[in-house]
Amino acid sequence: MNDELHSDLARVLVPEETIQAHVKVLAHQISQDYADVERLYLIGVLRGAFIFLADLVRQLTIPHSVDFMSVSSYGKTAVSGEVRIVLDLREPITNQHVLIVEDIVDSGRTLSYLYKTLSGRQPASLKTCTLVQKRREQIDVPVHYLGFSIPDVWVVGYGLDYADQHRTLPYIAELKEEVYKK
Ligand code: IMP
Ligand code: MG
User: Fold this and answer.
1) Whose C-alpha lies nearest to ligand 1, atom 20?
2) What number is the average pLDDT over the span 89-106?
3) Is 61 a domain residue?
4) DSSP characters for 97-127?
5) How far apart are CA 135 and CA 121, in angstroms?
6) How confident is the model at residue 76 (pLDDT cuts 50, 70, 90)?
7) Domain range for 167
8) Is residue 159 part of a domain?
9) Among the atoms of ligand 1, which is closest to the Cα of residue 48?
């Protein structure tokens, strides 16, 4: 498999089958946890989460709706600076059961900002789900549903990008350090 890797990529970190298995487990758990709820309101964080969200919702067995938010990030690797909403929800979430769906949690700044902002809008409940979490010490936001943890490297694929590249790979791969540190 490594023979066919793009020259930007160091190695496949999470193969397609492993991702799909995790998505299935997450969807099953979410469906169970929200079984008694009238409707679950899932919020995908653009752009990285759209592929994960698309696969996740198609495995849910409970009534749900989907909306998106987008937050600004500065620089190619998007991990510095402040967070700002550039696309907000279409409707209020008052009294709704809300689940924020992220692609990856690194410093936790993005998810923490969204969590605080949305909890101020009086949802009936608010939880978070991320496919990937980089192994980090302490983040100040709860992650209720997690696919898997990865080392502190830049990853691409399955929605994740580097400067808008490699987003549509079916697996998650580690970017070569020379690519993102140049
Ligand atoms: P935060 O540091 O947790 O706020 O992460 C900020 C955002 O940076 C995430 O939502 C991702 O969109 C992006 N990000 C962080 N690490 C990676 C990565 O390894 N690959 C691609 N995007 C990443
Ligand atoms: Mg993101």
Assistant:
1) 155
2) 96
3) yes
4) EEEEEEEEESSSHHHHHHHHHHHTT--SEEE
5) 30
6) very low
7) 15-180
8) yes
9) 12
Closest ligand 1 atom to Cα of 83: 4
Residue 79: pLDDT band (50, 70, 90) is: low
**Whole-number percent of the chain with pLDDT over 70:** 93
Evaluate whether residue 9 is within a structural domain: no
Count of the separate structural domains present in the chain: 1
The domain that holds 40 is classified in CATH as: 3.40.50.2020
- Asked if pLDDT for residue 26 goes beyond 80, the answer is yes
If you measure from the C-alpha of residue 55 to the centroid of ligand 2, how many angstroms do you get, rounded to a whole number?
Answer: 16
> Nearest residue CA, atom 15 of ligand 1?
106
Residue 83 Cα to ligand 2 midpoint, Å, equals 11
Amino acid identity, position 17: E
**Which residues are near ligand 1 (CB < 6 Å)?**
48, 73, 78-79, 102-111, 154-156, 160-161
CA distances from 65 to 31, 44, 69, 130 (A): 13, 11, 14, 18
Q: What is the CA(113)–ligand 1 centre distance, in A?
A: 13
Catalytic residues: 106
CA-closest candidate to residue 82, choices 110, 108, 54: 110
Does 16 have pLDDT greater than 70? yes
Amino acid code (one letter) for 100: I
User: Which tokens is 43 given?
Assistant: 């919020």
Q: Is 131 a member of any domain?
A: yes
